[in-house]
Amino acid sequence: MADPTVRLVHFSDVHLTARRLGWRRRDFATKRLTGWVNVKLLGRGRRFKHAPATVAAMMRSVRLRSPDALVFTGDATKLAFAAEFTAASSQLGVDDPSLPPGVAVPGNHDYYTTEAAVAGQFEATFRPWQVGERIGDHPYPFARKVGHVWLIAVNSATPNRFHLDASGEVGPDQLDRLKRLCDRLDGGLRVVVTHYPLRTETGALEKRMRVLRDHEAAVTTATGCGVSLWLHGHIHRPFVRGATAAVPFPMICAGSCTQTGRWSYHEYALTGRHLVGVRRTYAPADDAFVESDRFSLLLPAVT
Does the domain made of 6-298 have the CATH classification 3.60.21.10? Predict the structure, then answer.
């Protein structure tokens, strides 16, 4: 019997915030200060001023179209304040049982400070979207099966000391757990859900301050695990990149759901190894997301 079609919604980089952030004195000695300057004085805030409206429009579409699962690849917040996580959770309906199940991983903005990462603010807020099989008590990676598709959540975000450092890393311990977790999974497509790309749209590595630092180890491990697809965000322009010699499985970037002029998200229909994707782009005049592109892929078989 053929596998039934699995329908997914993939969105990323919503960068939601709150009116009152709850600044404390020690925050002024962290990246939050330069991040706030970037948001308030250097234009980043203007690029995301319509974020609540576009998220609301996307969620209306989700309810109307009723996919099998939601896939969120990180950057819920701007500066990883607790108030921002609360706002993001509410606007994305994380605790709403009437919505499809979700799978979520943090982005670098959700780990903006070491304190936020160590406290597990993202994990606490998105707990309903972090249900799955794990190795012991480790939060990552985890795997959730939707139909014949394993969504394997990998955390590639790290707190970084330097103000302009937006690079990430999976880390050797998590890569080892990924191998062991994949050994336990039964048949089906294996799809990595993470924040960072392995390559850009052109096949190049990202700049040093934005790159996934252990990209080579990540490719090797994912290939050994039989991964068929890598879903990510981080780059705010959406793109699809097919399998190559360097990365032997496709990558799909959802772009940013909320950045003005780039706002988009993806829908996927997976039937067996065939993926049909639809890119939906926000139309301000209609206050709705409309279809703007279609693409298809034949995913590598699990070996």
Answer: yes
Q: Is the dihedral of CA 151, 152, 156, 157 positive or negative?
A: positive
Residues 178-233 have pLDDT tens digits of: 999 999 999 899 999 999 999 999 999 999 999 999 999 999 999 999 999 999 99
Residue 232 parent element (H or E): strand 229-232
Asked if 258 and 54 count as a contact pair (C-beta separation under 8 A), the reply is yes
* Confidence bin at 303 (pLDDT 50/70/90): low
Instruction: Specify burial of residue 291 (Cβ count, 10 A radius: 0-12, 13-18, 19+).
Output: exposed
Cα separations in angstroms, 225 against 163, 187, 197, 218: 35, 12, 18, 10
The length of the chain, given as a count of residues: 303
Do 101 and 146 form a contact (C-beta atoms < 8 A)? yes
pLDDT reported for residue 21: 75
Nearest residue to 76 (alpha-carbon basis) of 131, 16, 3: 16
Indicate the pTM of the whole model. Answer: 0.95
Q: Of 264, 257, 178, 164, nearest to 214 (Cα)?
A: 178
Q: At residue 213, what are phi and psi to the nearest 5 degrees? A: -65, -35
Burial class (CB in 10 A: 0-12, 13-18, 19+), 207: exposed
List the one residue out of 166, 207, 124 whose CA is nearest residue 31: 166
Residue 278's Cβ-count burial label (10 Å; 0-12, 13-18, 19+) is middle
| Helix/strand/coil (H/E/C) assignment for every residue in 267-292 | EEEEECCEEEEEEEEEECCCCEEEEE
- Give me the phi and psi of 247, to 5 degrees please: -130, 100
Q: Which residues of 86-100 are buried (b: 16+ CB within 10 A; e: fewer)?
A: ebbbebbbbeeeebb
Mean pLDDT to the nearest integer, 280-300: 97
225/137 Cα distance (integer angstroms): 21
Helices (H), 149-189: 172-184
